[in-house]
């Protein structure tokens, strides 16, 4: 059955819940009835622009032949939006919300821009709530939180896009539970982004089944969450209206195409030093940051672009040397250049034991000793692109243009990426074999 064949008629009865409404019932009711504010719609527009640009950047990625084998557009688009690790991030849940929800919204709502944006926000809100209830311990246990909560979110996006009633949407949420998995052991392989594509595909199928009349026990969501170590009593899932935002705490946009743990140190050094400086003007670099914020940063003497994306020392080098730390700055040649390697060797890192969860605990402190005897110092708690410090129009435009250049795509401006046009753009440039 195609997505267009989803029924909007009353489906089979959901298993009767006892006591308080189940998580699935509460989330389905919330997703069906909550109306986005103008701020929510503005956030949706930014998420669309960011996600579509990042997916188009992956057009020439080596994974394309594998991704082309996926069955649906949504699965292919979602995998490509995630593969270069430049997609947005919901910090409280440690999930890449838009890489799942934008492709599903575009694939199921087509060229109806208003419906697509509304479906995106509904699914994104559910994903943020589920991921937050699963918690930081869920992520640190090794689960890929984007895919554990992503399949259910995809079911909500597809269900809202096709007008499922609340009972059908409740069933769709429960029917997505079997696909709600994914582990970090997949990181560093094709499986990481493919997990995201498969979650998107599974969510659409769950909505199809619910629309066709399939029933499910809504309490499956509570059982699933308990098995994964989450908190089924978290107010964001038992009472989704407890936070008025469609996406609680907003989304972080990556300004630099590297691990999110590098966004803050690069930003701190740029703000502290200002304009790029020559390597021979630097005598020493000192960085101090909470220990937990560098967990993914495992490369201390990087030699490749991929290693540079996970190197705090290289973050210091590109922040000082490059006017724009874009894709070129994270290529093999850029990491291997003599000036960068010199600064890597001059960088001293101190890790503090400040407690807390997440990648933005505390602040990063930076000091740069210059060869003329001066020392410049600064600190930063919120990196550029974080919800509390959203990207400027200039930063977003630079990112989009960088992505389009990497994907070898010409003739598209950021203003062309709208909810009504984006599905056609992706269909044209990311069709199998193109």
UniProtKB/TrEMBL annotation:
MmgE/PrpD N-terminal domain span: 78-222
Task: Show the Pfam families listed in the entry.
Answer: MmgE_PrpD_C, MmgE_PrpD_N
Q: Which domain of life is it from?
A: Bacteria
Every MmgE/PrpD C-terminal domain range: 256-405
Please give the SUPFAM superfamilies that the UniProt record associates with this protein: 2-methylcitrate dehydratase PrpD
Which protein family is it in? Belongs to the PrpD family.
This protein is called MmgE/PrpD family protein
Give the organism the record lists: Ornithinimicrobium cryptoxanthini
């Amino acid at each position: 059955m195609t997505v267009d064949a989803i029924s909007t008629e009353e489906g089979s009865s959901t298993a009767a819940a006892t006591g308080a409404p189940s998580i699935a019932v509460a989330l389905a009711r919330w997703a069906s009835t909550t109306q986005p504010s103008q701020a929510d719609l503005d956030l949706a527009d930014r998420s669309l622009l960011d996600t579509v640009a990042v997916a188009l950047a992956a057009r020439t990625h080596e994974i394309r032949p594998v991704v082309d084998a996926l069955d649906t557009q949504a699965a292919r688009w979602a995998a490509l939006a995630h593969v270069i690790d430049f997609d947005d991030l919901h910090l409280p849940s440690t999930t890449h919300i838009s890489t799942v929800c934008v492709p599903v919204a575009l694939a199921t709502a087509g060229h109806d821009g208003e419906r697509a944006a509304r479906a995106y926000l509904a699914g994104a809100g559910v994903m943020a709530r589920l991921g937050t209830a699963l918690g930081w311990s869920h992520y640190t246990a090794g689960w890929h939180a984007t895919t554990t909560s992503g399949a259910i979110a995809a079911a909500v996006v597809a269900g809202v896009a096709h007008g499922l009633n609340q009972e059908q949407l409740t069933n769709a949420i429960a029917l997505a539970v079997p696909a709600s998995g994914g582990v970090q052991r997949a990181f560093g392989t094709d499986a990481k982004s493919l997990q995201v594509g498969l979650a998107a595909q599974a969510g659409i199928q769950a909505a199809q089944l619910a629309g066709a009349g399939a029933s499910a026990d809504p309490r499956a969501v509570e059982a699933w969450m308990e098995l994964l170590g989450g908190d089924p009593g978290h107010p964001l899932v038992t009472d989704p209206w407890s936070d008025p935002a469609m996406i609680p705490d907003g989304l972080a946009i990556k300004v630099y195409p590297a691990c999110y743990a590098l966004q803050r140190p690069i930003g701190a050094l740029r703000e502290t030093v200002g304009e790029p400086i020559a390597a021979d003007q630097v005598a020493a670099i000192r960085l101090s940051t909470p220990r937990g914020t560098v967990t993914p940063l495992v490369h201390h003497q990087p030699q490749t672009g991929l290693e540079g994306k996970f190197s705090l020392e290289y973050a210091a080098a590109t922040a000082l040397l490059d006017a724009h730390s874009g894709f070129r700055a994270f290529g093999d040649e850029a990491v291997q250049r003599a000036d960068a390697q010199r600064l890597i060797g001059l960088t001293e890192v101190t890790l503090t034991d400040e407690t807390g969860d997440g990648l933005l605990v505390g602040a990063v402190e930076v000091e740069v000793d210059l060869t003329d005897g001066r020392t410049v110092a600064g600190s930063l708690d919120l990196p550029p692109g974080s919800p509390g410090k959203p990207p400027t129009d200039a930063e977003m435009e630079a990112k989009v243009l960088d992505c389009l250049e990497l994907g070898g795509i010409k003739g598209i401006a950021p203003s062309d990426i709208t909810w009504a046009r984006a599905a056609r753009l992706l269909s044209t440039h990311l069709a199998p074999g193109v």
